[in-house]
DNA sequence: TGCATATATAAGAATATACTTATATACTAA
DNA sequence: TTAGTATATAAGTATATTCTTATATATGCA
């Protein structure tokens, strides 16, 4: 049950990534599954390049991983990351973001990724 | 045992504050007690104004509180903050910073705050 | 009162961050 | 092959961040 400690530099880097509302919401959206870029664009109401740039930071730091499926690239949490415990802890303390995906689904806007 | 959820904006703000090595180390140093500004200056090897500015950010966001005692101002974690659970979780995942204070004590540099 | 110490604040500079628009790349399907 | 869709990258800009140096404030003590 003992968690491995994360060195301070690495912890600070991850916390800095999570310390941005857009990226924190993204991580929240990934809590229960995958999302593709177009879904983030819809939910977060931001430009596609901006979303891609945030995802790149998360990926470069190993917080998320990607999986291509046809034209789409699906992102998911990288639970194998040695800093995942930070992400996990934070996810327990913030509200679920799932409802935003549900809304999207209700509007029929999630079809692009089926 | 159920923790109250922290809204995403507020969580992101706190995580941003913790996402800086200097401030994260400060929080780590406060885990087991108070520290005064001159101790932070010694341990972190940074200028006094820089330390004060970091402490101000932490204080403005309610993460730490201050207590004046003579010429010295002692900082401590604000365990009453509604975002303290984030700080608490992070503290469990990073190494103890106490040894740095011990070193200081060994060098006799902690006398200023007795 | 006057000086020393501890801390805070102000102003400015260098750098980092997060957008924007434009364009490149990868895949699908006609 | 060509057009269309999804995503990534590049370049530029506005703003935020974190230092620095100089100065202000608060306390203690002779």
Q: What's the oligomerization state?
A: homodimer
Major beta sheet, strand line-up of chain A: 1-3-2
**Tally of individual domains of chain A:** 1
* SSE class of chain A: alpha+beta
| CATH-defined architecture of chain A | Orthogonal Bundle
CATH superfamily assignment of chain A? Winged helix-like DNA-binding domain superfamily/Winged helix DNA-binding domain
Distance between the termini of chain A: 38 Å
Radius of gyration of chain A: 14 Å
Largest pleated sheet of chain A:
3 strands, antiparallel
Strand content of chain A: 5-15%
- Can you tell me the residue ranges of chain A where pLDDT is under 50 for at least 5 consecutive residues? none
H and E string of chain A: HHEHHEEHH
Q: How many strands in all of chain A?
A: 3
The CATH first-level class of chain A comes to Mainly Alpha
Domain HTH arsR-type (chains A, B): 3-105
GO molecular function (chains A, B): DNA binding; DNA-binding transcription factor activity
Protein name (chains A, B): ArsR family transcriptional regulator
Pfam families (chains A, B): HTH_5
Structural commentary:
The structure is a homodimer of 114-residue chains. Chain A is α+β, with helices and mostly antiparallel strands and 114 residues long. Helices cover 53% and strands 12% of the residues of chain A. Chain A has helices spanning 8-18, 21-29, 37-44, 48-60, 84-93, 98-106; strands at 35-36, 64-69, 72-77. Chain A has a three-stranded antiparallel beta sheet. In chain A, a hairpin with a 2-residue loop joins β2 and β3 (72-77). The longest helix of chain A has 13 residues, at 48-60. The first copy, chain A, starts with 7 loop residues before the first helix and ends in an 8-residue tail after the last helix. The mean pLDDT of chain A is 92. The A-B interface holds A 3, 5-9, 11-21, 24-25, 28, 85-86, 89-90, 92-95, 97 and B 3, 5-9, 11-21, 24-25, 28, 85-86, 89-90, 92-95, 97. Chain A binds a DNA duplex (30 and 30 nucleotides) through residues 20, 22, 36-38, 46-56, 68, 70-73, 112.
């Amino acid at each position: 049950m003992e968690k491995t400690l994360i060195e301070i530099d690495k912890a600070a880097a991850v916390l800095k990534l999570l310390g941005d509302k857009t990226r924190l919401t993204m991580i929240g959206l990934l809590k229960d599954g995958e999302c593709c870029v177009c879904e983030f664009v819809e939910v977060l109401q931001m430009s596609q390049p901006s979303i891609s740039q945030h995802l790149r930071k998360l990926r470069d730091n190993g917080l998320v991983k990607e999986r291509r499926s046809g034209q789409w690239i699906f992102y998911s949490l990288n639970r194998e990351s040695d800093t995942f415990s930070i992400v996990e802890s934070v996810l327990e303390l913030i509200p679920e973001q799932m409802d935003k995906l549900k809304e999207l689904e209700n509007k029929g806007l999630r079809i692009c990724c089926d």
